[in-house]
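User: quick one
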Amino acid sequence: MVYLQTKFPQFPEYTIFISLYRGVQKEVIEGVKTGLISGDEKYDFCFLNTTHIISVEQLYNAVHKALLNDLNESKVAKTLNTEIILNLSPINNIGDALRRFGVNENQSDVIVIKVLPSGTNEAGLDKLNNSVIELLGGSSVSNPTLNDDIIFSDLVDMKKLKKVYKLNDAKIDFSQSIQNDISKLVIACCHLRGC
Amino acid sequence: MTDRLVDEAKLLLRNVSFQIVSQGAEALVFKTNIHPYFNDDQDESSYIIKYRPRKPYRHPKIDKSITKSRTIGEVKFMFKLAKAGIRAPRVVSTDYFNGIIWMEHIGYSLPDGKESTLKNWLWYLEKVRGESLSEEVQRICVEVGYLIGDLHLNDMIHGDLTSSNIMLDKKGPALIDFGLSSYSALPEDKAVDLYVLERAMNSTHADYASEYNSWLLKGYEKAHSDGHYSKQANKSFVEIIKRLEDVRLRGRKRSMIG
Amino acid sequence: MTVDLDKYAKPGKSYYIALGLEGSANKLGVGIIKHKLGQLSDSNRAEVLANIRDTYVSPPGEGFLPRDTARHHRNWVVRLIKKALSVAGVKGTDLDCICFTQGPGMGAPLQSVVIAARTLSQLWNLPLVGVNHCVGHIEMGREITRSENPVVLYVSGGNTQVIAYSKQRYRIFGETLDIAVGNCLDRFARTLRIPNDPAPGYNIEQMAKKGKHYVPLPYTVKGMDLSMSGILANIESLAADMFSSKGGKKAVDEETGELITPEDLCFSLQETLFSMLVEITERALAHVQSNQVLIVGGVGSNERLQEMMGLMVRDRKNGSVYSTDERFCIDNGIMIAHAGLLGYRMGQITPLDNTVCTQRFRTDEVFVEWRDD
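Assistant: Done. Structure below.
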């Protein structure tokens, strides 16, 4: 049972669930996409690919900003899940954001995020995690801990990330382990989406 | 500080406890230990919340537009600083609708309890340790000058350079407060930026200002002459200093028709 | 304040009387003021013996030209001086000095007035005191309102400055980078062909009161300063579209779909310009850590500006706004007499050779010897 759960100090009414699944089959992901488009309730989650994810912090920021926009009635997307995806993007275009950050059938790593009422207890979260594992293929899918180490070593594509967030001219020594610095730049970039 | 504004902030910030740091013309500054989305119990970092409240004297449409555009402008400036490797607080979160920026807090508490701005540090050294012209002070001033040089090399203008807007900590000096910042490649604008700092040093640190200012300029020159940015930088430096002399002669302001 | 203001007092005389001549723009003012010996205070106020003014009003759609204004001043100055002396009940020889506006202002009108001053000086054998027009406004504002040490917003047809006193200078904290706010309003009044009587700014104010819709205009505060020429260009173009007989789309308010009226334009212009003025004033207040504002200059008589300033200072620990009425905030001779007399009492006499007028005369060039706070 490995998933991340957190509460944001400004939104005590929600619990945030984030988890990583690896080894998801192509057909399953295609099914997820279809389900998302048709609005099937089974797929009421935020599904992400891992290419442009640099840190857990980046994910939390996107969720937080989405909740803030929801509160201020300034969401661009119709659903919270899509708003989260949009808040990972430097460009204010939903289609583009979904393509880049949304689930991708050519990749077997999937991050799933869900915003739940804060009353949800441990058992409820376990149940949720299990249901996602089932949804994504059951026993063939692994569910390792999502943390900054695994992101940096296994999941992120730095070249693509730098391109998307236009960080190639940033004065950072990319040869050093500067995950934290890059994460902060990416987050600031997201906050300037559409500005 | 006017209570009404603090109450407004408390409401908008939802459950987050904060201390009041200052009230400027445009914004209130708070300090908090709470991170909006990534709280780590072991982490003792603090954060700064800058809040631009509504101005009741402005027409609501003007007010909304200004609050939003100024907040965004400041975030943009901070992002560009981060990209350029110029030390400044990094953005943590934003709420443009309500004029709020959440950012890293840079600095520490000096032994006399004050924040480690260049101003407070110099005052502390002067009053308590009586060592205003030590090698350490010289080194720090040169570093600050270098930082400002880097800023100008990137055609960025701080707009309000005073010793209160320069923060010191272990990693070195950092710039803060970008409410009046802008972009310009003109030597005139860079000279005015330097002049504001020079005047601020003269009025706040009168006794040693001439040494401080010369060290600041040394660092500023080094940023232009050491070639780390471009080979043309030295030429820009010469032009800027020439303009600085003009600005000194006429005072910052132009001569106006009555 | 422990400055000795009576070093140059005439033995046996317990007061001073000064005549002031103002004509830097289209208002010609003659004032006669009396100071008793000693510090000015609540129990020793300056006494206005006469404050006479005549304004040169140009036809609607036209501004006042220097040549015509100078001619107006030449035609009226003797009349006004005689009237002032009569109202005050004094003769030329009762005076201590002749004060005149040395600058800043328009060249030809300033010239006409200084010639009158020099003539009187020769006639009655009195010393001349050249006065900075802005300092005149400030000192009169301080005297009338008895405000301690406020930040001053000086706004008129020719000037827009935020001033704070420090170490014997009125230092300019913020100012216009191009035109003055009064000038901006006056020129827009011309575009709309609003009458210039009693003043174009006053008429814009009345129209603005009837405006409802805010039309987006540029907002150009630049740090501690502000710029207004862009706003003027923008609103003049909006007005041109409005009055264009070529047809095409007329401007409407986005929310209600109602047509934008000239009153709406006046309203929008005032809201924008005044917000900017209040903002740079607030910046100065924060800088010097004060919460008192004194508004001087013709535009200071605008009630909406006063209201907005009041709202701003209320949020700064319940500060105060001081302003004077049209007798003193619009250009007048009494302020020149008052500021001139303060200078005279410190020995700041202007020798004849130095009485050349100057169009550019910065407020911070004046040595405010009569204060030592």
